[in-house]
Amino acid sequence: MAAHNKPFRVLPGFNLTLGYTLLYLSLLVLIPLSAVFIKTASGGWEHFWLSVTSPRVLASFRLSFGASLLAAAINSVFGLLLTWSLVRYRFPGRKIVDALIDLPFALPTAVAGIALTAIYAPKGWVGSLAEGYGIKIAFTPWGVLIALIFIGLPFVVRTVQPVLEDLEVELEEAASSLGANRWETFRRVIFPALLPALLTGFALSFARAVGEYGSVIFIAGNIPLVSEITPLLIITKLEQYDYTGATGIAAVMLLVSFVLLFIINGLQAWSTRRIGRTV
User: Fold this and answer.
1) What's the gap between Cα 140 and its chain centre?
2) What is the pLDDT of residue 206?
3) Rounded distance, CA 85 to CA 90, Å?
4) What is the pTM of this model?
5) Do residues 221 and 227 make contact, with C-beta atoms less than 8 angstroms apart?
6) Which of 36, 79, 93, 139 is the most buried (most CB within 10 A)?
């Protein structure tokens, strides 16, 4: 009789499901990441330190992490504005614009890099105009930044869009009826509700930008100490059969990325709890 009272579960039991989950994560995530640190340790501390503190590597770190953070911040601002326009307004071509946002997802990264280079090169449509004002975009850190903005924008828009769609307009109307102006309504009602999703989009955009390779190498110019990104430097180390040097640089990127993402996720959790207390 007790057997008939057991709840029906579509998936297998907890132990079997947990076992499959741990096995899957181990094969795809934990073991490869562990191999990076093990291979790095095999070269010794001195080789690791020399590999990750050379001027060329430090310059690539500054460019990769700095441009990724800046691109994610820009995408957070303009991605929010774009999402607001798509959700709150109806205009001709709205569905086309909405579909074009997903283009960086579907477009091969090499194709994106070639297209951006053709546009922003000194003889391109935009590059030639900027050249007239003495501004060079392609083959400089500015080109890297533009490529990272291009590939990271959909993460912010697609993360914030469903939250904004579910946000009730009546809350804004209630704030307005209580005497709040537009800025106060946005700052006190709308933005706190969107902040966790916005931080998630920022983290996803940053994570994608840090490891981006295909769309950047064409427009970056790959000039050492100027426009050379860290993923390209890792490939260069591998081509030189310096495997411990390549894994050492990769290990630093992993550690810094984990720390930054941990901070962002902590801010997201804090903002979610804060909103929950104020509702």
Assistant:
1) 21
2) 92
3) 8
4) 0.85
5) yes
6) 79
